[in-house]
Structures are given as structure tokens and as C-alpha cells.
Amino acid sequence: MLPYFEQPQVHLGPVTIAAFGVIVAASVMFGLSAGSRRFRALGLDAGLAEGFAWWVVVGGFLGAHLLSVLFYFPEKVAANPLLLFKLWEDISSFGGIVGGSLAIWLFLGRRGAHLDASTRWAFVDVAAYVFPISLMIGRIACAVAHDHPGTVTRFPLAVSLERPEARAHITSAYTNAGRAADLPPANVLAGLGFHDLGWYEFLYLAGVVVPVVLFLARRERRRGVHHPGTFLVAFIALYMPARFALDVLRVSDVRYAGLTPAQWAALAALAALPVVLRRVRALPPRPYAPRESGRDATSSGGAAA
């Protein structure tokens, strides 16, 4: 099993910089850079592209926080409504997906209404190309913070509970979920581990989703043609079933009718997939021509992944 460690922190006077925040910031910066290259390669309007990118980032972070506190911690909001405005606390990936998607819809409705369907979907597909890679980087932050603990286990890829700090962490998660009685005695617990779902999701993204995204991007580059919607369809088809399955292992996440908010969102996305697929199949292809030394973000992204 993997050893448990607490995330590194740097204290600069009254300010504490945690590894989680640094890694999340790196994922956003990578996404903006990779997205910029994709916009240029697809010949999309530079002014619209810049506005689109920032709308998605802001909408994503707002959604990540608001949906997290409203759906995962409603009791905290009821006790302290000001929590809604503490944007630096409590974020969820599916909240980011919903917030980013809403921002895309609003942006294209307001500033992209004059665009044809193929161009609008090309904008959407830039986000769908960038997001899995940025999410993979972001899941490293989740893994070092151990903020998605799952059930106790003997699984070899789990995080060991040998250290007292690890046992305190998982005990807190079980207690918050009202499941403290499900934990074995301390002497048994020390020989077990816990499913670290941020770590597992990173492995799945790095081993399955991102390689498929990079393969599709390289195929585009070779053929010089982009089919709008390709990356959105691939992301939904590959990510949503895995996320639904992983959430079964979560300990403290709130359930609605037996499912976590992320599981309900995954089901909704999968239900919408046939409609999305039908629409994108009707779109004409677009030329794809990387303009920076014959390479685009997929080349540098492949090395980073």
C-alpha cells in the first residue's frame, strides 16, 4: 500500500500556501495555455476565444464552490449562509463541470449567437479537450490532500493506515458520515488502508482518458481535420461511468435516493450522450492546422501526461 503523508505547506507570515492550491493553480494555467493553442489551430476568433476561456474558468470555479456547499454540505449553509461567499472553501469537480457548462451556454448565447453550429461546437470541444488533462493534474492535488477518502480496504493501491495521522483522518471521515461503528478495532485498522478516490481518479485519467484524448488530438493533427464534438463525446463516454463507479466507495459524501450528487450528474450526462452524439454527427468537419512549430498542446501535453 501507499504510505500516508500530509500535504506540504509553506508558511509565509500569516499566509499558508498548501500544495493543493498550488497544484490546482497549475492545472488552470495549463488549461488556459493548451486552450489558447487549440483555438489558434482551429482558426477561431482570438477575441472570442480569450473571453470564452475566462468565462469557463470563472464559471467553473463558481459552480465548483456553490454546488459543493449547496449539495454536499447543505447543513453548513443553513448554519452559516456566508459560506456561499467563501469561494476558496469546498469545491467539487462536477460543480465545476456544471458551472463551466452554464458559462459556455451563456457566453455562446450572448457573444457567439452569430456563429454557425460547427463553430460553436468547436468552442465547446476546446473545453472538452482541455478539461480532462487539467482535471488529471487537479486530481494530484486531491491525492496529496486525501480529501476524498473511501472505505477501508486491503487493496494494494490504497493508502496505508499504519500511521496514527492516517487513522485519525479516516476515523474523522467515518464519524462525519455517522459510520464510526463500521470501523474495525484500532489494532486491526492499522493493518488496513483506505481507498483514496482522488488518487484512483488520477490513475484512471492518466491511464485511460488522457491517452485517448491525446490519441484523438494526434489523429486530428495528422489528418488536418477536426470533427467538432469529438472530445466532448469521448469525455462523457469514458469519464462518467468510471466516476459513477468510484463514488460507490465514498464514505462521507451525502446521498440523495442512495446516490451522490456526482453519480446523479454522471447519469444525466450519460443520458444526454445519444442526443449530443446525434447532433455532432450532423456537423461538418473543420480544418485543423497547428501554427506553433508544427506542434500544438497535444505534443507538450503528451510529455507532461
SSE arrangement:
Blueprint: E1 9-12, E2 15-18, H1 19-41, H2 46-72, H3 74-79, H4 93-110, H5 117-145, E3 149-153, E4 159-160, H6 164-176, H7 186-189, E5 193-196, H8 197-223, E6 225-226, H9 230-247, H10 261-281, E7 286-287, H11 297-304
Antiparallel strand pairs: 1-2, 3-5, 4-5, 6-7
Describe this structure as you would to a colleague:
The protein is mainly alpha-helical. It has one domain. 64% of the residues lie in helices and 8% in strands. The chain contains 11 helices and 7 strands. The strands form 3 sheets. The chain has a 3-stranded antiparallel beta sheet. Helix 5 packs antiparallel against helix 8. The chain is elongated. It starts with 8 loop residues before the first strand and ends with a helix.
Order of helices and strands: EEHHHHHEEHHEHEHHEH
Basic shape: elongated
Q: What count of helical segments does DSSP give?
A: 11
Strand content: 5-15%
Domain count: the total is: 1
Ranges where pLDDT stays below 50 over 5 or more residues in a row are 293-305
Query: What's the total number of strands?
Result: 7
Q: For the residues shown, what is the average pLDDT?
A: 91
Oligomer: single chain
How would you classify the helix and strand content by structural class? mainly alpha
Separation, N- and C-terminal Cα atoms = 23 Å
The major pleated sheet works out as: 3 strands, antiparallel
Write down the Rg.
20 Å
- What is the helical fraction, as a range of percent? 55-70%
Q: Give the neighbour order of strands across the main sheet.
A: 3-5-4
